[in-house]
Design brief:
Blueprint (H helix, E strand, L loop, with lengths): L2 H57 L2 H14 L3 E8 L2 E6 L5 E9 L7 E3 L19 E9 H56 L14 H48 L4 H28 L10 E5 H18 L3 E6 L3 E6 H18 L5 E8 L5 E7 L35 H11 L3 E7 L3 E8 L6 E4 L2
Parallel strand pairs: 7-9
Antiparallel strand pairs: 1-2, 1-5, 3-4, 3-5, 6-8, 8-13, 9-10, 10-12, 11-12
Helix pairs in contact: 1-2, 1-3, 3-4, 4-5, 6-7, 7-8
Length: 469
C-alpha cells in the first residue's frame, strides 16, 4: 500500500473516531436536556393544578378543579390520568394505557402542597392518595405522566440532533478526505522523489538528485542524499581516472619491454646486459605505479611503522639511479648533493616512497632539457632536510596546499588541465608518510620558473634522526 493511501486512511479513521465520540457525547447531553425540560414542564403543570386546587377549596367548588383538569388532559397528551380524592371518594380522569411517571400531592386549606414523586408503573387507582384523618377539607391529587411520551420526545430530539450532526459530519469528513489527500500528497511527494532518485542512482544515472524544499526533516534527508550521490560520483570518477592513468603508465613500460624482448634475440652480451638493466628499471617503475594505486585504499588507515636504523642518503642514491635513464632519455639533468651520510631511525619503505614520489613528480613536470636537483642536509635546528627542486611550470599560491590531497592535479596556464601522466596520488602518499613520522612537507614555487619541495624530518618524536660524523 502506498504511503499516500496509508496517510489518507489514517486521517479518515481518526476523524471518524472523533465524530463518533462527539456524536455519542452530544446524544447523551441531549437526552439529559430533554429529561430536564420535561421535568420542568411537569413542575409547571403541577404548579397550575396546585393553584386551581387551592382556589377550589377556598370556593368549595370541586367542579372548577375538575374542569381545569379535563382541559389539561385535552391539551397535554403526555398526561394520561388524574385522580382527585376528597372526603372518602375519588374522581378518576383519563385512562392509563402505558407505564406512568406519577406525581402526588395533597392540598388542605390554607396549607402549602408539596409534590411527591412515585415509582413508575404503579396503577393509578391503587396509588390514589388517602385524605388525612379528620380533615374533610383536604384534596389528594395524583397526576400520571406517560413515560412512553417522554421517551418519544427524547427520541425525536435525538433524531433531530443526529440529522444535524450527521450533516455536519458528512461535510467534515468530505473536507477531511480532501485535507488528508492533500496532506498525504505533501508528505509522500518528497519520499517518492527520494525513492525515484535512488532507483535512478542504482541504475547508474550518477546525476540523480532530489529537490530540496524547506528546512524540515525531508529537506535534510534530500540534502544528505544529494551529498551522498555527489560523493559517489566523485568516488567513481576518481577510480576511473586512476584506472585510466595506471593503464597509461603501465602500457608505456610494457611496450618498451616488448621491444627489448624482441631485441634480445639478436643482441650481443653487452647489449643484452644493458637491455636487462633497462628492463629492470622499467619493472621497478611499474611496481611504483602499482604501489601508488594500492596506497590509494590505505591512506585512510594508520599503518604500523617498522623503525630501523639506516642511511637515508643510500635510499636517495638508489632513487637517483632508478630515474637516471628516464631523465637521460628526456635530456634532463638529475643531480644529488649531500654534506654526508645521514643515519635515521624510520620506516625504510616509507622513506623510499617519499623520495621516489618527489623525484618522480619533479621529473614529470620538468620539460625536456630542464633539471631536477636533490639535496639532503642537516638543518640548524638538528632536523634532517630533504629538498627536491625542479625547473617546471611552478605551482600557483592557491594550489600549494591542494596538491597534497588525493587525485588533485594542479591546472596549467590559463586554468587548463595539464596533459601530464599521473594519478594525482604521489604527493598525497608522500605527505601521509611524512605525517606518520611527525615531519612536515611543503612547496616553494615561482610560477613559470621553478618549484622546490621540502621535507623536514624531526630530530625526535616521530623519527629519531642521527647524523654521522
Amino acid at each position: 500500500m502506498r504511503i499516500r493511501t496509508k496517510i489518507t486512511l489514517w486521517v479518515m479513521a481518526l476523524m471518524t473516531a472523533v465524530v463518533a465520540a462527539v456524536t455519542t457525547n452530544a446524544l447523551y447531553l441531549e437526552r439529559g436536556r430533554v429529561v430536564a425540560e420535561s421535568q420542568a414542564r411537569f413542575d409547571a403543570l403541577l404548579e397550575g393544578v396546585l393553584r386551581i386546587a387551592r382556589e377550589s377549596l377556598a370556593a368549595r367548588d370541586e367542579l372548577m378543579l375538575l374542569g381545569y383538569l379535563k382541559v389539561l388532559l385535552a391539551d397535554y397528551p403526555e398526561i394520561e390520568t388524574i385522580v382527585v380524592s376528597r372526603a372518602g371518594h375519588s374522581s378518576i380522569l383519563g385512562q392509563a394505557t402505558s407505564e406512568l411517571i406519577l406525581r402526588r400531592f395533597s392540598v388542605t386549606a390554607p396549607s402549602v402542597a408539596t409534590f411527591k414523586p412515585v415509582e413508575a408503573g404503579v396503577p393509578a387507582t391503587a396509588a390514589a392518595p388517602a385524605p388525612a384523618a379528620g380533615k374533610t377539607d383536604t384534596l389528594g391529587i395524583e397526576v400520571g405522566f406517560s413515560k412512553a411520551a417522554l421517551q418519544r420526545q427524547i427520541r425525536q430530539a435525538q433524531t433531530a440532533l443526529i440529522r444535524r450532526v450527521g450533516g455536519v459530519a458528512a461535510v467534515g469528513l468530505a473536507l477531511g478526505m480532501l485535507g488528508s489527500w492533500w496532506l498525504g500528497f505533501v508528505l509522500a511527494r518528497p519520499v517518492g522523489e527520494l525513492a525515484a532518485a535512488s532507483r535512478r542512482l542504482g541504475d547508474g544515472q550518477l546525476d540523480a538528485t532530489v529537490a530540496v524544499r524547506g528546512r524540515d526533516e525531508f529537506a535534510e534527508l534530500a540534502r544528505q542524499f544529494n551529498a551522498m550521490a555527489a560523493k559517489l560520483r566523485d568516488s567513481i570518477r576518481f577510480k576511473e581516472d586512476l584506472m585510466s592513468t595506471l593503464t597509461h603508465e603501465l602500457n608505456n613500460p610494457l611496450s618498451g619491454l616488448k621491444g627489448f624482448l624482441s631485441f634480445l634475440h639478436d643482441a650481443g652480451p653487452e647489449q643484452r646486459a644493458e637491455a636487462v638493466r633497462t628492463m629492470e628499471q622499467a619493472v621497478q617503475q611499474m611496481e611504483v605505479s602499482l604501489r601508488s594505486a594500492l596506497d590509494l585504499f590505505r591512506t585512510g588507515a594508520q599503518p604500523k611503522l617498522k623503525h630501523e636504523r639506516f642511511d637515508l642518503r643510500s635510499i636517495v642514491e638508489e632513487v637517483i639511479r632508478l630515474f637516471e635513464p628516464s631523465a637521460l632519455s628526456r635530456k634532463q639533468e638529475l643531480s644529488f648533493a649531500s654534506a654526508g651520510p645521514a643515519l635515521v631511525e624510520a620506516d625504510r619503505e616509507l622513506m623510499r616512497r617519499i623520495v621516489i614520489n618527489l623525484v618522480s613528480n619533479g621529473l614529470k613536470y620538468t620539460p625536456a632539457g630542464g633539471r631536477v636537483d636533490v639535496r639532503l642536509e642537516r638543518a640548524a635546528d638538528g632536523t634532517t632536510h630533504l629538498a627536491v627542486a625542479d625547473t617546471g611550470p611552478g605551482v600557483a599560491p592557491e594550489d600549494r596546499e591542494k596538491i597534497f590531497t588525493k587525485f588533485y592535479r594542479a591546472p596549467g596556464p590559463g586554468g587548463r588541465a595539464q596533459r601530464i601522466p599521473g594519478s594525482g596520488l604521489g604527493l598525497a602518499i608522500a605527505k601521509q608518510a611524512v605525517d606518520l613520522h611527525g615531519g612536515r612537507i611543503w612547496v616553494e614555487s615561482v610560477v613559470g620558473k621553478r618549484s622546490v619541495f621540502h621535507v623536514s624530518l624531526p630530530r625526535s618524536g616521530g623519527t629519531h634522526v642521527v647524523h654521522a660524523k
